[in-house]
Design a protein that fits this description.
Keywords: Sigma factor, Transcription, Transcription regulation. GO terms for molecular function: DNA binding; sigma factor activity. This is RNA polymerase sigma factor. Belongs to the sigma-70 factor family. ECF subfamily. InterPro entries: RNA_pol_sigma-70-like (IPR039425), RNA_pol_sigma-70_dom (IPR014284), RNA_pol_sigma70_r2 (IPR007627), RNA_pol_sigma70_r4_t2 (IPR013249), RNA_pol_sigma_r2 (IPR013325), RNA_pol_sigma_r3/r4-like (IPR013324), WH-like_DNA-bd_sf (IPR036388). There is one protein chain. The protein is mainly α. It has 2 domains: 66 residues, no CATH class; 68 residues, Arc Repressor Mutant, subunit A (Orthogonal Bundle). It is 63% helix and 2% strand. It has 7 helices and 2 strands, in the order H-H-H-E-E-H-H-H-H. A two-stranded antiparallel ribbon has the order 1-2. Strand 1 and strand 2 form a beta hairpin. The longest helix has 29 residues.
Length: 162
Amino acid sequence: MKICYRYTNAMEECEEIVNEGFVKLFKNIHQFDETRQEDTLLSLKGWFKRILINTCIDHYRKSNSSVNGHVLTHESETIADQGENGLDMLSYKEIIEAIRLLSPAYRAVFNLFVIEGLSHEEISQTLGISVGASKSNLSKARDNLRKLLQNKNLIKAYVSPP
């Protein structure tokens, strides 16, 4: 659930993706190679994680990959990747909640690049967008996350006792 939760902003969607992932796992269990690693359980977990990530990507492709009615293919390819770091004093839960508030296109690119470690070229091929669009979407996702997290941090500082 945690993997799928990062890619969607609705619990029902998340559950749907997890269920679809389990169906894929059971349909293709005959393809699983038990002898690949010594620890079969660890190997199975890694294989299932990859199935879930691919299912999330498939779900993203099926859904509308646009923001405000504009398809995010090469909208702002000239925007450079800022490479900014996040805030140090945030919990995992706060960061995941902020990621879930991103638009689907930004969230998918952010998850694939930052969390899954794919390159912009791999993201481009996976999502069917240009490399520039991947870089642009990552930059915008980071900007939006920074704003979301800073606003949340300011509200916390204002509300919490001294």
